[in-house]
Amino acid sequence: MNLAFIKILGQIDKVLKEDENGSATVLFKIDPESKNLNTSIAMVEFKKKHWDKIKNSPKDLLKVTLYGRYDLRLKNNKPFMYVRCESIRKIKQKNIEIETQQLELMLKDKVKKKKKKKIEKENFNNKWYECIPKEEFKEIDISKVKLVEEIHLEAIIPIFNIKKLSKYEEVNPIAVRRLENGEYGLVTGVRSFLVGKIFDKNLRAYITDLDRQTFKEKYSLEI
Question: Are 57 and 92 in contact (CB under 8 A)?
Fold first, then answer.
C-alpha cells in the first residue's frame, strides 16, 4: 500500500517493544490540538537514530512533533493508524505555547479557506459518475489498482471516520486507466480507493484513457 505523509504532535504513551537493532515501537498519544486527525492515539515505529534522541527523556514531560509515512491497518477488526517515523523534533516546554498558538492560527485559516472553497464549489460537480451510463462501470479487484498520480502519492490525507465508512453498503465509484500486466492506475476517487484497500472490497470503476488532469477538466471536477 502506498503510504501518505503526516505530521503529528504529541507524547509517548507506552513503549511496546525495543528491538536489538535499537529501533522501537510505541503507542503515541496525539495532542488534542490535532483534532483533524479524528483519532487520539497511533502506533509509531522509530528507527534507532530517532529513538536514541528521546528514549531517556521523561515521557510525562516530553512533547514531540514527528513526521512520517502512515497507513491504516486492522487488528481484531478494529482500525488503527500505523506511522513510520522519518524525522522527529523535541519541543521544549517554553515552545509548547508558541506551537499551540500557531496551530490555532492554522485552524482559523483553515476555516476561512473552507468557507471560500464552499463558495467556489458551487461551480463544480464531483459526482462525475452520474454523467456516465451505469453499464460502462465494471467491478474490479482493488488489489490491482495502484496510486500513480503525483497528487495522490504526495497527498496528506486527513483520517476519516472509518467506523462510519465500514457501515456503507455502497462506495462511490472510482475512475482508473489501464497499466501493464492487467493493473490499473487511479485517476480519481482516492477516498473510495482507501476504503477498498482497508476493507479488501472490490469497487465499481470507470475505465478511461485520460490522465487525472484531462479527466478533471472534462468533468469539471473540484478535486
Answer: no
Rounded Cα distance, 30 and 9, in Å: 6
Q: What is the pLDDT along the chain (223 residues), one digit of tens a residue?
A: 446 788 888 888 899 999 999 999 999 988 877 656 667 788 999 999 999 988 887 766 678 888 999 888 887 777 888 999 999 888 765 544 555 556 666 777 777 666 555 544 444 457 888 889 999 999 999 999 998 887 877 766 655 566 666 666 678 899 999 998 889 999 998 888 888 888 888 899 999 999 888 888 888 776 5
**Phi/psi of residue 20, each to 5°?**
-65, -25
Query: 3-class SS at 63?
Result: strand
User: What are the cell numbers at 88?
Assistant: 522527529
CA dist 83 and 6 (Å) reads: 8
The rounded Cα 91 to chain-centroid distance in angstroms is: 24
* Grid cell listed for 101: 498558538
Q: Which range marks the domain in which residue 179 is found?
A: 124-218
pTM: 0.45
**Contact yes or no for 137/129 (Cβ under 8 A):** yes
Please tell me the total count of domains within the chain: 2
**29 within domain boundaries:** yes
- 188 within 8 A of 172, measured Cβ to Cβ: no
Which of 74, 91, 108 is where one domain is finished? 91
Residue 106 is assigned to a structural domain of this protein: no
